[in-house]
Amino acid sequence: MPVLLSRPRPRLLPALLLLLLAAFPARLQAHARLLRSTPAANDSLREPPTAIHLVFSERPELRFTNVRLLAGDREISLAEPAMAIEGAEAGILVAIRAALAPGKYRVEWQTGSADGHPIRGHFSFTVLAAPPAPGAGGAAGDTTVAVPSITNPVIAAPSAPLSFPDSSHLAHPDDREGAAIEQPIGFRLARWIEFMALLAMAGAVAFGRFVLPAVADDAALSADAWRRARGAGLIAAAVLVLAALARLYAQGIAMHGPGKGLEPVMLTEMVGGTHWGLGWGLGVAGALLVIVALAARRGDARNAVALAGAIAACVSPAFTGHAVATEGALHVPAVLFDVLHVSGAAAWLGTLCMLAIAGVPAATARPTGERGLAVARLFRAFHPIGLVAVGLVLVSGIGSSWIRLGSLAQLTMSNYGSVLLFKIYMFVLVGLLGAYNWKKALPRLGDDAGTHRIRRTVAVELVIGMVVLGLTALLVVTNPPR
Q: In Å, how far are 53, 122, 163, 170, 401 from 41, measured between CA atoms?
């Protein structure tokens, strides 16, 4: 919590969240899962199916979708690409190229929703032997069926409900939902590093654009603080790009299997043809813009370019997380809350980080009698930014939590809710530090002892902020309750 804030009431923060969650009806939100299939799991069919139809809880990304049909160790040819049913349920249709002989078959599927979270599953069905029709002709062994040419992976919704065989009931409970693909620890670590680098990079931009102008009359202080913040921002932007590349590799492995994480065709399709890829590319592009702007020592447009890059990077997580997968009327609010949450955290923790590693060192490098006053000026310049930023974090966090959880009970009945609750407690702890800074540390600024005291409390605040970012990275890869 930034200094100079009015005294917070920490116990009211989780209470306010719980109250708002309880005031609204439940909203179901989860990663994509298989609801039903045709053929259904463990079904026995008198007539061989000509297509596989899968219905998911969320609309799947076609470029993340792969369906295989196996007869023992032999793979049956399926039409590619899979077709989405436009306007109908969140389903896909995959045509079977050959007529299926009697026997047992296994369907293996993998897909991902707009947020890029992969999930896979499998089920089996049996085609029963049927007596030949009287007078049936045709050459023996001719099993080829006509498959229409597919030029568009999306087909229009039929005017009447889709008609499927008797097997269109729900899939077997053991097979219906599939299993989410566990993201490796490296993916979570890259996400955590990415969040920290994003906040530090955006904080450097905000520090130079909104804090330093308030001390522009002290040219030496302003120049020294910006030199330090600029270097830190460049390092953070470079780390952000490297962490994003590591996450792209991990995403490629999760979607396409080991050994295929760097295949150019698959990476190109994933980045250029999915919502996840759009968000990932936006973040990398934003970081590169910041690098170009911070590396330019002169130029009237560099500040605008840096700010545009920081904003793009703050928008990016909304398109690679749970927000973009939210469907219906809550889609836009979910994305907006996510963008505001990341932006607020960047303006708060990121700018506070630059204040600690750039502003305060520059101030303490001043002559002895000016150090305390320079530190106080910097913290006063940061106050309005921190005040607005914490408000954004709080309001957007409450809105996002309502959309994700939907009911009060999910805070204690789901893994997602438990992690979120711990994050709330960490936020309350930061609030207590903010209260201390406001009541104790800030009035004593002006000498070396006051500077030492506030540096210590800000350091603790940033460490707790890193823990909060780690919990955020864990929430991104954790299923919201269904």
A: 12, 9, 18, 8, 35
Tell me how far apart the alpha carbons of residues 469 and 482 are, in angstroms, rounded to a whole number: 24
> In angstroms, rounded to a whole number, what is the distance separating the alpha carbons of residues 121 and 70?
14
pTM reported for the whole predicted model:
0.72
H runs (alpha helix) in 296-345: 302-315, 322-325, 331-345
The string of pLDDT tens digits covering residues 421-472 is 888 888 778 767 766 776 777 667 767 777 778 888 888 888 988 888 888 8
Contact of 310 with 206, CB cutoff 8 Å: yes
**β-pair type (118-127, 43-45):** parallel
Given CA atoms 372, 374, 376, 382 in this order, what sign does their dihedral have?
A: negative
Q: Which H or E element spans position 420?
A: helix 415-436
Q: How many residues does the chain have?
A: 482
- Note the Cα 206 to chain centre separation in Å: 23
Digit-coded pLDDT (tens) for 54-100: 888 777 777 778 888 999 888 888 877 677 766 555 778 888 888 89
The C-alpha atoms of residue 175 and residue 293 are separated, in whole angstroms, by 52
Name residue, tokens 């150090």.
Answer: 371
Return the number of other C-beta atoms located less than 10 Å from residue 94's C-beta. Answer: 22
Closest by Cα among 378, 354, 4 to 222: 378
Count Cβ atoms within 10 A of the Cβ of residue 396 and give its class: 0-12 exposed, 13-18 middle, 19 or more buried. Answer: buried
Main-chain phi, psi angles of 368, to 5 degrees: -55, -45
3-state SS, one letter per residue, for 237-288? HHHHHHHHHHHHHHHHHHHHCCCCCCCHHHHHHHHHCCHHHHHHHHHHHHHH
> Which residue has tokens 């590619």?
80
Q: Which two tokens stand for residue 235?
A: 């390092």
Distance CA 443, CA 136 (A): 96
Place of tokens 């913040």: 229
In single-letter form, the type of residue at position 81 comes to P
Residue where the block lists tokens 């065709």 = 265
HSE, CB side, 13 Å, CA atoms: give it for residue 417. Answer: 19
Please give the Cα distance from 32 to 169 (Å, whole number). Answer: 19
Q: Helix count (H) and strand count (E) of the chain?
A: 15, 11
